[in-house]
């Protein structure tokens, strides 16, 4: 699974080769080595999906819905965690683990086929103004 790394000190994305040590520190490798301690970075996992423009969608991304050709004025934040989803076969709600989206005023919902309806417009680390969550 792919991930991206936010360096809290430089407030930028790290694009260097990385290795994660068992103690949680992150080793950035490219030319000279740099070590980031667990509190110095944020790791964001890829959802494994692309948005409608072909951009990879990561945890922490802010997406807007383009469902049915309409842009809805509601920004959603992609999160990793657990959520409840209804199973019509078993006719009950079940706990699920994976990626979901949050939007102000709506319950969390599973991340759907974003390649059909969503566009990444930023992320919560660089663009906190895009959402009030």
Write the layout of secondary structure elements.
Blueprint: E1 3-7, E2 12-14, E3 17-20, E4 26-30, E5 32-36, E6 41-50, E7 56-58, E8 61-65, E9 75-87, E10 92-102, E11 109-110, H1 114-117, E12 118-123
Antiparallel strand pairs: 1-2, 1-6, 3-4, 4-5, 6-7, 8-9, 8-12, 9-10, 10-11
Task: Describe the protein's architecture and organization.
The protein has 133 residues and is mainly beta. Helices cover 3% and strands 54% of the residues. The strands form 3 sheets. The protein has a 5-stranded antiparallel β-sheet with strand order 11-10-9-8-12. A 4-stranded antiparallel β-sheet has the order 2-1-6-7, with no helix packed on it. The chain starts with a strand and ends in a 10-residue tail after the last strand.
| Elements, N to C (H/E) | EEEEEEEEEEEHE
Count of individual beta strands: 12
Supply the number of helical segments: 1
- Work out the oligomeric state of the chains in this entry: single chain
**In which range does the helix fraction lie?**
under 10%
Describe the global form.
globular
| Uncertain parts | none
Biggest sheet: strand arrangement: 11-10-9-8-12
Q: What amount of the residues lies in strands?
A: over 45%
Work out the radius of gyration.
17 Å
**Mind summarizing the main beta sheet?**
5 strands, antiparallel
Summing up helix and strand content along with how strands pair, one would put the structural category as mainly beta
Q: Which whole number gives the mean pLDDT?
A: 86
C-alpha termini separation: 26 Å
